[in-house]
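Email to the structure team, subject: Antibiotic biosynthesis monooxygenase model.

Hi all, the expression group asked for a predicted structure before they design truncation constructs. Nothing fancy, just the tokens so they can compare against earlier work. One-line instruction: predict Antibiotic biosynthesis monooxygenase, return tokens.
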Amino acid sequence: MADVVLLKQRVEPAKTDQLREWMAEIRSRRDEAVETLQNEGMYTEATFIESRADGTYLLTFLEVEDIDHAFEAYESSTHELDREHREVLDEVLADDQPEQNIELLYQMTNPERP
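Reply from the structure team: attached below.
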């Protein structure tokens, strides 16, 4: 069974547009992005922006073969897209991240999913 993770990270004030631009860049480099997902054992990766009174957050949904392997592969990757991704996230995400206490209640996938 796949690991399913939801991450919530605070975005620095005035950095949301830069984050949106970077995510658009990733979409435009689909072949490279798919290659990095395959290297990480990632089945699904989706990102969202949540705007709240207390700030803006990047939410990332991951469905992956093994989350520990995926994080290790991402952190050690020399792929240009991963390198750029780490740089952008380092620049746009706040240093003071709230403690995450996100509990998965259930995860279900249609076995006939294409």
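The helical segments are 16-28, 30-40, 67-76, 80-92. The first strand starts at residue 3 and ends at 11. Ping us if the truncation boundaries need rechecking.
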